[in-house]
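Teaching soon. Got one?

===
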Amino acid sequence: ARSLVSLFIFLWSNELVIAIGICVVAGACASWFFAPPERRRSIHESHRAVMTGVENAFCCHLGSLALGSALIATVQLVRWSLFYLERQATARKNKVMVSILRCVECFIWMFEKCLKFMSKKAYIQIALMGTPFCESA
C-alpha cells in the first residue's frame, strides 16, 4: 500500500510540473500578445509577461492544475498496476490472463492519451480565460 501511495505521489507531482509549465507558457504568451505594440519590443515586457504567467499559475490556478494532473496520475497508476499484474500472470504462465490484461492496458493507454490531450487544451484555456478545470475541459 505504501509503494502505491509513493508511486501515485511521484506520478502526480510529475504531471503537476508539466501542467504548471503549460499554464505558465500559455499565460506568458497571452500576456505578451495582448500588450500594446510599443511595449512588446522591450525586454522588460518579456520578463513581465513570464512573471505574470508564473504568478497566475501559482496564485490563481494551482487547484485546477492539481485536479487535472491528479486525474492523469490516477489513470497512470491504474495502468502501472495492470502492468504489474501482467508481469505476475506471465511469471505464472497464465496466457489467458496475460491477453486480457494486455487488452485492458491498451484501452487504458488510449484513455490516458485522450485525457492528456484534453488536459493540455484545458490548461491553456485556464491560462487564457481564467476558467476552472472542468469548465475549460
Remarks:
- The longest helix spans residues 95-129.
- The mean pLDDT is 93.
